[in-house]
Amino acid sequence: MIKKNGNREEFNRDKLLRGLVRSAEKRPVSMEKLTEVVGKVENKVRGLGENEVSSQVIGEFVMTELKDLDEIAYIRFASVYRQFKDVGAFMDELKGIMDTHHE
């Protein structure tokens, strides 16, 4: 995996799961569901057939899975992953969720 700063490290299921657990803290999301998300993300990464995958691609895979699982966990993960520059950017993300919720 290629991190944002250019460093390379192995894909780490446990590290990803810990991040998901933090995002879903005090939410009605079981450990089983979070482990499923990690498995789906890992399968998508392996399915790319690449030796190296950017952390941005992995983050997008995670967010796709979280959006359907729990919107609050999704926003929490997005706030760390996307490093919102200001409240406006954060509100845009919330608006996007609300718009898809009402479709």
TrEMBL record:
Function summary: Negatively regulates transcription of bacterial ribonucleotide reductase nrd genes and operons by binding to NrdR-boxes.
Family: Belongs to the NrdR family.
Gene that specifies this protein: nrdR
InterPro entries, per the entry: ATP-cone_dom (IPR005144), RNR_NrdR-like (IPR003796)
GO biological process assignments: negative regulation of DNA-templated transcription
Any GO molecular function: ATP binding
Name this protein carries in UniProt: Transcriptional repressor NrdR
A Pfam entry, by short name: ATP-cone
Keywords: ATP-binding, DNA-binding, Nucleotide-binding, Repressor, Transcription, Transcription regulation, Zinc
Start and end residues of each ATP-cone domain: 1-89
